[in-house]
Specification:
- With about 190 residues, this protein is mainly alpha-helical.
- The protein has a single domain, classed as Hypothetical protein af1432, CATH 1.10.3210.10.
- The protein contains eleven helices and no strands.
- Helix 2 runs antiparallel to helix 3, helix 6 packs antiparallel against helix 7 and helix 8 packs antiparallel against helix 9.
- The radius of gyration is 17 Å and the shape is globular.
- The termini are far apart.
Length: about 190
């Protein structure tokens, strides 16, 4: 019996932004889906508009599984995770061990197909950068959503993440900001 997919199904129980008051609680499963869609979109934009040659499907899959280890170790808030190098390294090691544990839950015959998603190769560096920026875009969109709902708790995070995104030199990130982000500020009626 393999517990792999049962564990992944528990991503819906892992809350994000746990140190902040939220108008809408976001869970790890929701975040992973949004990150996968945005990473896929960024890769498509890079390929179509900026001469890239990224594997768009792989970008989506890497993003879909990028935080899977948190189903075992939980989501440590960024201000704590990145407060110093010792904590950052230690948490990175915990996440690595958690990903290895998840991978070990698969039947032996299936592990080679999932291993590249949990243990990306050096050749995936460009795709992993796209996933990291998709992750940051997701955080920014969450801030916009909370601010639109009147939640000032996300004001400083919004400013800091926006500054980081504006400093990004990847053309696909700039394109996403220019062409897609403003729609997230609208109500459903305004979108229609």
């Amino acid at each position: 019996m393999s517990h792999f997919f049962a564990y992944l199904a528990r991503m819906k129980f892992i809350p994000r932004w746990s140190l902040m008051r939220n108008t809408w609680r976001e869970n790890l499963q929701e975040h992973s889906l949004q990150a996968a869609m945005i990473a896929h979109g960024l890769a498509v934009v890079r390929n179509r508009l900026f001469g890239g040659d990224l594997q768009v499907e792989r970008a989506a899959l890497l993003a879909l599984y990028h935080d899977a280890g948190e189903v075992i170790v939980g989501d440590l808030p960024s201000p704590i995770k990145h407060s110093n190098d010792t904590i950052d390294r230690a948490y990175g090691q915990l996440e690595e061990a958690a990903r290895a544990r998840l991978l070990s839950m698969l039947p032996e015959d299936l592990r080679p197909d999932f291993a590249p998603l949990f243990e990306p190769a050096a050749a995936d560096a460009e795709l992993l950068a796209v996933v990291a920026w998709a992750d940051k875009i997701c955080a920014y969109l969450k801030c916009l959503e909370e601010r639109r709902a009147g939640n000032l708790e996300f004001s400083e995070a919004e400013k800091a993440i926006r500054a980081s995104l504006l400093g990004c030199e990847l053309p696909e990130v700039r394109y996403f900001l220019e062409h897609f982000v403003d729609s997230f500020r609208l109500t459903l009626d305004e979108l229609n």
